[in-house]
Each structure stands twice: as C-alpha cells, then as structure tokens.
Amino acid sequence: GNSVTQMEGPVTLSEEAFLTINCTYTATGYPSLFWYVQYPGEGLQLLLKATKADDKGSNKGFEATYRKETTSFHLEKGSVQVSDSAVYFCALAAGNKLTFGGGTRVLVKP
Amino acid sequence: SQTIHQWPATLVQPVGSPLSLECTVEGTSNPNLYWYRQAAGRGLQLLFYSVGIGQISSEVPQNLSASRPQDRQFILSSKKLLLSDSGFYLCAWSVSSGVTTNEKLFFGSGTQLSVL
C-alpha cells in the first residue's frame, strides 16, 4: 500500500536558520504530493502541493520539489521565523484519500 | 464559500460510554469526507472516508464506526469507548473528482477526545 515516511522531530532551530524536512513516499502510479502544516492549537491546513514529477510547490517561503527518481518531496525554507513553529505533515494523494506521514515538529527559537 | 464545522471542540468521556462526533460541510455538494485521528506524539491516521451518502470505507479495524446520513454530514461513533480511543479527531473534506483526489483537503478545527 501507499506510505509516507518523514524525518522524526522535534527539529529545533534558531531564527533565520535553514530548514529541511525530509519526506519519501511509496506509492503505485503517480500520486499528488502535499505538505500540510498544523500551528499550535489549530487544525491542519495545506501549505503547498505538487501534482507531477519535477513540479515545485511553494508558499510562504517554503518550497518542495516532486522528485520521482528518488520518490521524495523534501520541504525547505531558507530563513525560518518563530511563527514557523508548527508540526509539518507530508502527504500523498492516491485514489480518494490522503496518506500522511507521521509529522515533524519544528520549534524555532528567537 | 465553503466551510466545515466540527463539534464538540473538546470532550471528556468515561471508558465504556458512547461517542458521537459530528461534522458538516457547507457551500459545496457531494464532497469526499474523511475522519482522521491524531494520537498524542503520533502522526495522522485515516480512519474512514466517504465518497457519497451511505458509502463508508474503513481504513483500520477499530472500535469506531462512521456514517453519512446526508450529503454533507459525517458522523463518527462508538458504542463503548476505550482508553485507546483518546486522541485528536479531525474531519476533512475534498472536492469529489471521480477517480483521483488531487485536490487539497480542508480540515475542521478538530475534537480533542479524552477517555478516562
């Protein structure tokens, strides 16, 4: 079946540091890939997505590129802010459902 | 615009009691509907999804059940709660696009369930 594996957290960074969260997937066919973010006390919301190989999703300074050859969708941000502290979920869509990774908690310190 | 409502926001229930969490969607028709659970310190697990009234797919064997009595209503239930049912439950919807969901999910605000 489909699965998503992402690096375990927590990831603790200083403000303005570079952030990378690794995500790899296993799926049949060509799924769409997503990053969702969950800020403290809130529900999940879509951060960015990519629907085919080599697509780059971007939003709020975050980027992720759909790499079919390595089955990866790593999330990056060049300079994080305290407000980026959240749990980040990588996910893939196939059929009528999304499969999520385990989530990575990111804590950005001033 | 579309909105999703999920209630209650928090719930404390004794072991063995019943459960009913409700989710409704407004501003769209024939959505795909989902129930996810986020256990403490763990990721998001898909429990049920529905592509239409009365159509429920269960992803994991468990103590819970789901029903979709109306197009935009999705209910999560249990006859007798277990301690392991504690967690954060999220309802979500997506546009129904036939075969494949490549549209994003819209999540409700969640229900924090504590079974004591």
Characterize the structure shown.
The complex is a heterodimer of chains A (110) and B (116). Chain A has no helices and twelve strands. Chain A is mostly beta strands and 110 residues long. Chain A starts with a strand and ends with a strand. In chain B, strands 2, 4, 5, 6, 9, 10 and 11 form a seven-stranded mixed sheet that branches. A four-stranded antiparallel sheet of chain B has the order 1-3-8-7, with no helix packed on it.
Question: Can I get a quick summary?
Answer:
The complex is a heterodimer of chains A (110) and B (116). With 110 residues, chain A is an all-beta fold. Chain A contains no helices and twelve strands.
Topology of this protein?
The complex is a heterodimer of chains A (110) and B (116).
Chain A: E1 3-6, E2 11-14, E3 19-21, E4 23-26, E5 32-38, E6 44-50, E7 56-59, E8 62-65, E9 75-77, E10 86-94, E11 97-100, E12 104-109
Parallel strand pairs in A: 2-12
Antiparallel strand pairs in A: 1-4, 3-9, 5-6, 5-10, 7-8, 8-9, 10-11, 10-12
Chain B: E1 3-7, E2 10-13, E3 19-26, E4 32-38, E5 44-52, E6 55-58, E7 65-70, E8 73-78, E9 87-94, E10 106-107, E11 111-115
Q: How many strands, which pairing sense, and closed or not: the largest β-sheet of chain B? A: 7 strands, mixed
What is the oligomeric state here? heterodimer
- What integer value in Å does the Rg of chain A equal? 13 Å
Largest sheet of chain A: 6 strands, mixed
* Total beta strands of chain B: 11
Please name the two chains that share the biggest interface, counting residues whose Cβ lies under 8 Å from a Cβ on the partner chain: A-B, 22 and 26 residues
What percentage of residues of chain A falls in helices of 4 or more residues? under 10%
Provide a count of the helices of chain B.
Answer: 0
* Count of β-strands of chain A: 12
